Amino acid sequence: MSKRKPKPANQDAPRKKSGITTLVMRVFEQNPGVELTHKQVSTLLDARDARSRQVVFESLSTLVNKRALQRINHHTYKLANETNLLEGFISITQRGAGFVSVEGHPKDIYIGPSNIGQALNGDKVKVRVFKQGNNRDEGAVAEVLERERIQFVGTIQVRNNDALMVPDNAKSGVEIKIPHDKLNGAQHGEKALVKITVWPKSAERPYGEVLVRLGKSGNNETEMLSILYNQGISPVFPEAVMAEAEQIGIALDPQDMKLRRDFRSVLTFTIDPFDAKDFDDALSYRDLENGHFEIGIHIADVSHYVRPGSAMDQEAFLRSNSVYLVDRVVPMLPEQLSNLACSLRPNEDKFAFSAVFELDEEGKIYNEWFGKTVIHSDRRYTYEEAQEVLEGKADANDQVLRKIDALAKKYRNKRLKHGALSIESEEMRFKLNSEGMPDGVVIKTSKDAHKLIEEFMLLANRKVAEFLSPKKKGQENFPMIYRVHDYPDPSKMELFAVFIEKFGHKINLNDPQHIATNLNALFEEIRHENEFSLVQSMAIRSMAKASYDTQNIGHYGLAFKHYTHFTSPIRRYADLVVHRILQEELSTKKHKYGAELGAICQRISKNERKAAEAERESTKFFQALYANEFVGEIFEGTISGIAEHGLFVRMDENYCEGLVPMMAIPSDRFYFDQEKFQIIGAKTKRTYQFGDRVRVRIDQVSTRKRQIDLELIAD
Asked: Do 247 and 257 touch, CB atoms closer than 8 A?
């Protein structure tokens, strides 16, 4: 036996059997290579009474059975063979279990709650595999290699000797002890952003300090700030970034203007939401002498103002995109750029990066041109104003708008014929009063004006990607960012097929090339049925997620072989980088970006998901805030989700979604049938499934949990 004196793992005596296995394992992990007896382990854990020592012994046996420990002889134990160690990233469920994904490992490794150790959701960990099976491997976290994050949002609970931060998100957060001198003025019951400063191996909880006080829990401003900070999104820019932005003026340099193609005399306009402040894109139109016409797609020239390596560039990379919450926008760039210098505002000369096409009535492209321009927007349309013109309202530019719209429809039909997905989802928007409180709900649908802009942005993105891709087979490509979308996962599509069978629908999955076409046919068939939005939503969930990558695999959802993001550099960092790559190709053909583009793609894809999650959480909060005004009232709705703990119902009148707990379903004891994906009454055999029409009463609302509890009204 080694003579090295083992280190104590915990000075607090274990009182409960729950979690003791973790503490025992921690003793050995902190003493690698050391053989320890049951008595020594009990002493290190301060297990003095007979019951505690018995629990320690049982834990030792459990760990031996799991192959986490080796029994050397009848009395001594040590860590199992170190060859069972693997590295990967851990995802932790709501129930506290973990799954570690390891590159090259076919299946995730299951980590029981007692074997998580000090790992947090998203951390890079070293995991010890102690059980291999056909269904899954099991293991324990041996070491945290890299933290996904060390800053968390939660509520402060002040105690006599110290304080505790209880995280908003139990899945991704952790309770943090805060010494009184590290509270920085935070009061009991306040929300705050807290940073982990140290986590001793022997401690159950880490220690930290308050970085930002967010305010009283439940307050609108507090909750929005909490959502942002919880995703690692700061609502304020660093001083260095703001100082750099303030140096940028709105006036254009006459010398720079001479180097650009001048479109200021060409009819140019923007079409954007009524409340937009940053105008990324504009369209120009003019007739040509040969009977063709020219359409220019003009994009804000952000790359002119934001130079590589500058403070603004570094901050834009860290943020990766603008974030759109219900009541605010957190821009990727300071407003001096996003709303002023770069924005293609009406009646102002502006620098742009443009894609210009010579076309005929059928949309055939005869010539294309990419380059830096100077433009002058003659008119700013809202989507509503443009739609009125398309529907017949007289306007100075009505003929042009209708001509462009006709061309957009041809491009869209062509995409659909080539296998593009036809997704037309409804978007819920809250009407806010002067105090920022929800005053009603508006459902936004995509109309012709939206589709017009969409099609020409798609055209520009596709043509830029084609221009920057290898022209000949086998030709080596220079580093490039593509927007990619993979084929659907066959197993997920099979589950989708099972799901729609419950509504009496079928889909042919035998030919992967025509899945999108078959889906479009299904959507058209059920467009006016109750289950339409649910089926479409489930179809989207069955698809792969679009992302950024240096390897071009095409875009399945759009049916494009080449696709990138070029048209929104004010709000997306990917577009800014593509602008730089395009300009290098047009000018010097010497490309500065290299292998780092891979890391950039990973970063911006990850931040895109964080922004989407923040937007969802914002919507859920305002749903709860709005529904709180109607507690006790009855609404009609549609079952939008089914789970073991109850039914999710989306109410017709307000589009808010709430949960009917299983116990709140009257007239029987109900259970979840996973195979049939139904809620079934044990005695009555009454069933509830997706798409069923029901009546519910709003029982209670928690804005803190962003949750609406409903009660089902019996027929």
From this structure: no
Phi, psi for 454 (deg, rounded to 5) = -60, -45
Contact 514, 419 (CB under 8 A): yes
Architecture of domain 20-79: Orthogonal Bundle (1.10)
Q: For the whole prediction, is pTM greater than 0.90?
A: no
pLDDT tens for each residue of 271-311: 999 888 899 999 999 999 999 999 999 999 999 999 999 99
Distance CA 14, CA 46 (A): 7
Distance CA 636, CA 695 (A): 5
What's the pLDDT score for residue 316? 98
CA trace torsion 235, 238, 241, 247 (10° rounding) = 100
The DSSP string of 167-213 is: ES-TTT---EEEEGGGSTT--TTEEEEEEEEE--TT-SS-EEEEEEE
Contact indicator for 252, 351 with CB cutoff of 8 Å: yes
The β-bridge relationship of strands 687-688 and 678-681 is: antiparallel
Tell me how far apart the alpha carbons of residues 416 and 667 are, in angstroms, rounded to a whole number. Answer: 48
Same fold, 82-146 and 151-217: yes
Q: For the structural domain made of 151-217, what CATH number should be given?
A: 2.40.50.700
Q: What is the DSSP string of 22-86?
A: HHHHHHHHTSTT--EEHHHHHHHTT--SHHHHHHHHHHHHHHHHTTSEEE-SSSEEEE--GGGEE
* Dihedral angle over CA of 450, 453, 455, 460, nearest 10: -150
648 has a pLDDT exceeding 70: yes
Residue 213 neighbours by CB under 8 Å, 6+ apart: 184, 185, 186, 190, 191, 192
What is the spatial distance between Cα 521 and Cα 514, in angstroms, rounded to a whole number? 11
Superfamily (CATH H level) for 82-146: Nucleic acid-binding proteins (2.40.50.140)
Which residues, 6 or more positions from 705, have their beta carbon under 8 angstroms from its beta carbon?
Answer: 624
Rounded to whole angstroms, the Cα distance separating 422 from 408 reads: 15
Euclidean distance between CA atoms 406 and 412, whole angstroms: 10
What fold does the segment set 631-712 form as a domain? OB fold (Dihydrolipoamide Acetyltransferase, E2P) (2.40.50)
| Residue whose pair of structure tokens reads 């934001």 in the numeric block | 306
Task: State how far the Cα of 579 lies from the Cα of 590, in Å rounded to an integer.
Answer: 14
pLDDT reported for residue 358: 98
Q: Domain locations in the chain?
A: 20-79, 82-146, 151-217, 240-483+555-610, 631-712
- Note the pLDDT tens digit of each residue in 218-274: 889 999 999 999 999 999 999 999 999 999 988 999 999 999 999 999 999 999 998
Sign of CA dihedral 543, 545, 551, 557: positive
The pLDDT tens digits for 119-152 are 999 999 998 887 666 677 888 888 899 998 999 9
Two tokens, residue 109: 């490794």
H-helix or E-strand spanning residue 286: strand 281-287
Q: What is the DSSP letter of 450?
A: H
